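FYI - complex with flavin-adenine dinucleotide, inputs then prediction.
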Amino acid sequence: MAPLGEGSDDPVLPDLPRGPLHAARARASFPWKELALFWEGPDMLRFKKNIFSALENDPLFAHPPGSLSLEKYRELNFLRCKRVFEYDFLRVEDLLGNPLRVLALIQCLGMYDWSLATKFFLHTLTFGSAIYSSGSERHFKYLPKIFNMEIFGCFALTEVSHGSNTKAMRTTAHYDPTTEELIIHSPDFEAAKFWVGNLGKTATHAVVFAQLYTPGGQCHGLHPFVVQIRDPKTLLPMPGVMVGDIGRKLGQNGLDNGFAMFHKVRIPRQDLLNRSGDITPEGTYVTHVKDARQHFSESLGSLSSGRVAIAGMSVVNLKLAVSIALRFSATRRQFGPTDEEEVPVLEYPMQQWRLLPYLAAAYALDHFSKSLFLDLVELQQGLLGKDRSARQAELGREIHALASAGKPLASWTAQRGIQECREACGGHGYLAMNRLGDLRDDNDPNCTYEGDNNVLLQQTSNYLLGLLVRRDQDGARIESPLKTVDFLEAYPNLLGHGFEASSPEDCLDSSESERKHVVCQLQEVSAVPAVPLPRSLELWTQELCCAPAIRKHARAASSVFPVGALISARSNKVKTFSGAKNANKIHLTKGAWHPTLTVGSPQPAVRLQGIRS
Ligand SMILES: Cc1cc2nc3c(=O)[nH]c(=O)nc-3n(C[C@H](O)[C@H](O)[C@H](O)COP(=O)(O)OP(=O)(O)OC[C@H]3O[C@@H](n4cnc5c(N)ncnc54)[C@H](O)[C@@H]3O)c2cc1C
């Protein structure tokens, strides 16, 4: 068999059909197949192709003509989700070999329809991994049932009255030692679980977060419990559970978001997910966790994986939108030197300035989300191996801070990128069949679920300010396992340096020090309680998330390697993509806000654009 990428009949990377885009593609300065192989690797390309082929050839996934009713769409989405399980794309042994396949599967499903991807994701990753990572051996009985869809799950944290303030959730779980049961109860309508994906029509089980009370009335804080919602055979609600669909949303309407109220629903004591705390049969609360703060973060630890995945999902939306807009722009002709000879709008620098930064951002964020996902896998392996080392604890804090900043960065970049792409396609961008409206609507909740972006950024700022406090109070060095904050050790000395650059190449390094300088400056003002934080939070976000990913390859990009250096996402090492036919045509570079991919442009390679205002 010929290696991937060779020959026009390669089933994974076949030649593209000749069409209106042929002329633009023929002018490319690099072989696209080599770039695809370099970026993804042959195994991942085959894996994705396998998924796409299965969906393409299965009539269940054919897009029906016209719009579907809400009921029909949700029903179809469930059937499709079931079929995805039947295809068995993810085998455990494959997962261990390449955990990025989980992310890739969700992303491929999302490229097809985000309602399907989120349905699958909530059941397997959010519900399944909440049980796996917050529970213990006694809960592993649920795992095979999840993977053969004997049960169908959801993650029920948010209530009508509270989302961001998770500590304030009001659902209760009182322990009754006489029957060794927990009594799950919603005190009133405001404590009803709300917004929960899969709960509307299909969930049979939920991981429900509730305040745990032991006999005598002592509250031990928020804990997760497995609660049966419906009978898996009839889908009728269990006694004491009032459950329903919350109705039409702005997007992702194939997904049944729902509400639930519990009226003294009894569950076995064993269905408390007990990684951070447990109850003895007599009703004594036991925990290895030292303080309430650590307990709280352990209880909600499963949220980090959702945030990392959402960063990757946002990147997919950006990729889709940018592909649509660039292809359109390469063929759409307006004006020209003569009336007969009009120019593709992509030739106009303004169109390039609008779209190419988002193309570059898609590459940088794609790498960032994959490498953060692999860091998360390392963290979870440590948790499962019961690693209680200081490094493991620090890694958990750093990943939490990165995920809390990375989700906002990726979802907001996608949100703005999709809108720019929509406008870059003119009127045709507004036609529903061109999908930019769906992408905009389906990406939008990425800014809200698993933590509102604005609120999440405050968690990252807490982490950063905490490092300063530890240094000032205990003399601790500022360093972290992934080294994303080590530069802050130079604070406040960094503030003494100005920004100096005499060439675009200088800018590549200098803008990095400039960014560090700005972050330190903001750290300084943020330490004063009266000064508001939001702008500093945004900058930290960019520094923490974008910079580490971009820094690794941007430094090597531009002049050193004529084609730019790209990172192998899997090895997390800088690699050079040297397949260009024509040197100096592509530089992967960075800017103060987001990276810029310049294509044969006479403009300086670096764009020193200010912070997002
Ligand atoms: C499509 C969708 C699917 C969802 N799926 C699920 C699910 O499966 N399971 C689940 O449990 N939940 C789910 N949610 C709920 C989601 O997690 C919450 O909506 C989210 O956490 C935000 O909480 P909230 O809606 O209560 O907003 P609020 O917390 O009420 O926030 C409202 C506004 O106040 C601001 N704000 C809040 N606190 C502060 C503060 N301290 N400082 C400054 N500003 C602040 C926020 O930035 C926001 O702009 C889903 C939501 C959506 C939209």
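The chain has a mean pLDDT of 84. The first strand starts at residue 153 and ends at 156.
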